[in-house]
Write a structure and sequence with these properties.
This protein is mainly α. The protein has one domain: Serine Threonine Protein Phosphatase 5, Tetratricopeptide repeat, CATH 1.25.40. It is built from 4 helices and no strands. Helix 1 runs antiparallel to helix 2, helix 2 runs antiparallel to helix 3 and helix 3 runs antiparallel to helix 4. The radius of gyration is 15 Å and the shape is globular. The model has no long low-confidence stretch (mean pLDDT 87).
Length: 86
């Protein structure tokens, strides 16, 4: 549902509109809360870049996204080892 909202806002408002960015943030939070850390990390990285361009590096929304992105990087489980059985 949130993905549809984001796509609709991107079409209607534009990618960098503040309401579109807000919808992307909540989609990322939902992925994070569902422990979909890879999806959340990818979305938050894109969002942080957009927010820095649109809102500025020191805007509270940009800072909130960067904080969650850092938490993901710190707390993400390490990748599973690849088995080398031949």
């Amino acid at each position: 549902m949130l993905r549809q909202v984001v796509r609709g806002r991107e079409r209607t408002l534009c990618r960098d509109h503040e309401d579109t960015l807000s919808s992307k943030y909540w989609l990322g939070r939902t992925l994070f809360d569902q422990q979909n850390y890879d999806g959340a990390k990818e979305l938050f990285q894109q969002l942080a870049d957009q927010q820095e361009r649109t809102l500025g590096r020191d805007h509270q929304h940009t800072l909130a996204t960067v904080r969650l992105l850092q938490e993901l990087r710190i707390n993400s489980p390490p990748p599973l080892p690849v088995s080398n059985t031949s």
